[in-house]
Amino acid sequence: MLTHRGPSDSWERASDSRQALRPRAQEAPCHARAVEGVRRPREQHVQGGEGGPAQGGRLRLPRPAQPQARLPQAVDHAHQRRRAPQRPDLRPAHPRAVAGGRRGRSQEPRRPGRDRRRDVLGDRDRRQGRAGRQGLIVVGGRSAAAQQEFEGVRNGRPSCVWTTDLVVLGENRPVDISSPSNPRIKQVRALLDRRRERARSGLFVAEGEDLVAAAAAAGWVAEDLLVAAGSEPELREHGIDLAGATIVAPALLASASSLGSGTRVLGVYRQRFADAAAGPRCLHLHGVRDPGNVGTAIRAAHALGASSIAIGPGTADPHGPKAVRASMGSLFALPLARADGPAELPGLTVALALRSGEVLRADAAWLAPALADASGGGVSLLIGAERDGLPDDVVAACDRVAHLPIGGAESLNAAMAATVALYELARER
């Protein structure tokens, strides 16, 4: 028989009449605190996606890869890098995980706003040694005093300091200029590119160890001397004094040079012009626009014993890079002067014709007969451009007119004609 027992809705089968009327002990409720009148904390449900077993589950967010307090600055400013500043770099969030993330010695929040002076050692420099990273050559080891200090017997006091005597040969000095925006690099480029800048500043540039050595041999002192890093031994072999020189990154110095192959040294010099052209043998260049011809004529004049070079109107700048290279150092050994015409030249003035069939004066002769009676006094040779020659008013103002014997060729190069004329003049002398 089934009997119903109280509010628990429990049923039991009574075996007899006594068991059917006996009450049954009830279990305690699952939530005892609810019976005592204390409410349970309400659970917060998060709206999940529609469908699926994870609907309403907890949302877990991943932790950041690094502590956010260590994040670097978002922008690496150009003025805080040692390499050439082009523009600020956008830095990744975690530069240590990216290859080359610290290239150019970028600044981080824990680093100073500018680089430490090169002559001040930091903790890492003291631990690892600075000689190897600066390219210094160390010869020898510990001296006797250093050995005693290491063994702890110096002056009877214990010591644990390791000292090493360094002999620095000084061949590899630290780089002083590595930025293309350096004012001295900009000045070199302006002097090489613009004649107006050379005229304004009164400076010019000599490129290469041969020209710099020739300037030093002639007694010229450079206003500024830029040397490529690592080329000091070769430059000393050429007799170049590197006292006061500035070490420049080789690639930067090559980019500033006008030479296609670059150079190891650049010298900035002050232009020199004499008050007047000097005799007894003077070469006057009038309207020679090719700087290569100007430099070659200066070189020939120096080799054949000319006393000075007179630069006339319309002539290329003798201090331009092409003219300086073509002179091969003769620019530093031969005085230069400015002259507008024959009236400012010393001695007998002789106009030289360069073209075959050129209309000459009636008294024109070959060069040798024109110079025959000029052996006692000074002579000034006037040479014009190969195509145009000398202006008519200049030819009319000269004392003599001469021409070179030209066969089948139409004309002679201005520098070649100057070389032949100077040779004839030297032979007559």
TrEMBL record:
<dbReference type="GO" id="GO:0032259">
    <property type="term" value="P:methylation"/>
</dbReference>
<feature type="domain" description="MRM3-like substrate binding">
    <location>
        <begin position="182"/>
        <end position="249"/>
    </location>
</feature>
<dbReference type="InterPro" id="IPR051259">
    <property type="entry name" value="rRNA_Methyltransferase"/>
</dbReference>
<feature type="compositionally biased region" description="Low complexity">
    <location>
        <begin position="56"/>
        <end position="74"/>
    </location>
</feature>
<dbReference type="InterPro" id="IPR029028">
    <property type="entry name" value="Alpha/beta_knot_MTases"/>
</dbReference>
<keyword id="KW-0489">Methyltransferase</keyword>
<dbReference type="Pfam" id="PF22435">
    <property type="entry name" value="MRM3-like_sub_bind"/>
</dbReference>
<dbReference type="InterPro" id="IPR029026">
    <property type="entry name" value="tRNA_m1G_MTases_N"/>
</dbReference>
<dbReference type="InterPro" id="IPR001537">
    <property type="entry name" value="SpoU_MeTrfase"/>
</dbReference>
<protein>
    <submittedName>
        <fullName>rRNA methylase</fullName>
    </submittedName>
</protein>
<dbReference type="GO" id="GO:0003723">
    <property type="term" value="F:RNA binding"/>
</dbReference>
<dbReference type="GO" id="GO:0008173">
    <property type="term" value="F:RNA methyltransferase activity"/>
</dbReference>
<feature type="compositionally biased region" description="Basic and acidic residues">
    <location>
        <begin position="1"/>
        <end position="16"/>
    </location>
</feature>
<dbReference type="GO" id="GO:0006396">
    <property type="term" value="P:RNA processing"/>
</dbReference>
<dbReference type="InterPro" id="IPR053888">
    <property type="entry name" value="MRM3-like_sub_bind"/>
</dbReference>
<keyword id="KW-0808">Transferase</keyword>
<feature type="compositionally biased region" description="Basic and acidic residues">
    <location>
        <begin position="33"/>
        <end position="45"/>
    </location>
</feature>
<feature type="domain" description="tRNA/rRNA methyltransferase SpoU type">
    <location>
        <begin position="283"/>
        <end position="423"/>
    </location>
</feature>
<dbReference type="Pfam" id="PF00588">
    <property type="entry name" value="SpoU_methylase"/>
</dbReference>
<dbReference type="InterPro" id="IPR029064">
    <property type="entry name" value="Ribosomal_eL30-like_sf"/>
</dbReference>
<comment type="similarity">
    <text>Belongs to the class IV-like SAM-binding methyltransferase superfamily. RNA methyltransferase TrmH family.</text>
</comment>
<feature type="region of interest" description="Disordered">
    <location>
        <begin position="1"/>
        <end position="135"/>
    </location>
</feature>
<feature type="compositionally biased region" description="Basic and acidic residues">
    <location>
        <begin position="105"/>
        <end position="128"/>
    </location>
</feature>
